[in-house]
Amino acid sequence: MTEIDPVNGWPVWLGRLGIHQDFVWFVSLIGWSLALVVWWRHPRRHAGWAWLPWSAGAAIATAVFQFCLFDPPFDFLFERLVPGTSSTYAPALIDPDWLGDVLIGAAFAGMVAGWIAVARCFGPGSEVSGDSPRELKRRAPLRWLALAACAGVAG
């Protein structure tokens, strides 16, 4: 039978696993780095997989940001003991949680910007795609469906 933590009601094994989430970020960093290297070495990397470096870059940046949040490398991310006192702390100059959220959001915004650039270069209607005008007209309502789905998620 699974032991349940009386404080939060979660299984104890899940709580013990949760403190090691830096390993998951490390595996993500290694996996996306490997995907980026494989993409770079592939001879047809500019055709159908042009979106991959943008996704890999955002995932690698996110993993690095998470590592910095788990163990902040800079002094301005720490609470500091006020000189002359033994228990009064000044807040960090920059809140690490806020900074992490902003940096991760910027990484994913960069990924979406890269996807848009790739869609303009390799997407429907480009010289590379070879789509006929009839095919493009048939796909036009799907663009509105995607836009409506994004608006619904953004809420």
Please characterize this protein's 3D structure.
By secondary structure, this protein is mainly alpha-helical. The protein is built from five helices and two strands; from the N terminus they run H-H-H-E-E-H-H. A hairpin with a 7-residue loop joins strand 1 and strand 2. It is elongated, with a radius of gyration of 23 Å. The two termini are 41 Å apart. The mean pLDDT is 77.
Largest sheet: 2 strands, antiparallel
Work out the strand percent: under 5%
In helices, the fraction of residues equals: 55-70%
Could you say which structural class the secondary elements and strand pairing correspond to? mainly alpha
Gyration radius over CA: 23 Å
Distance between the termini: 41 Å
Individual helix count: 5
- Give the beta-strand count: 2
Q: Give the overall shape.
A: elongated
Low-confidence blocks of residues: none
Looking across the biggest beta sheet, what order are the strands in?
Answer: 1-2
Helices and strands, in order, run as HHHEEHH
Mean pLDDT: 77
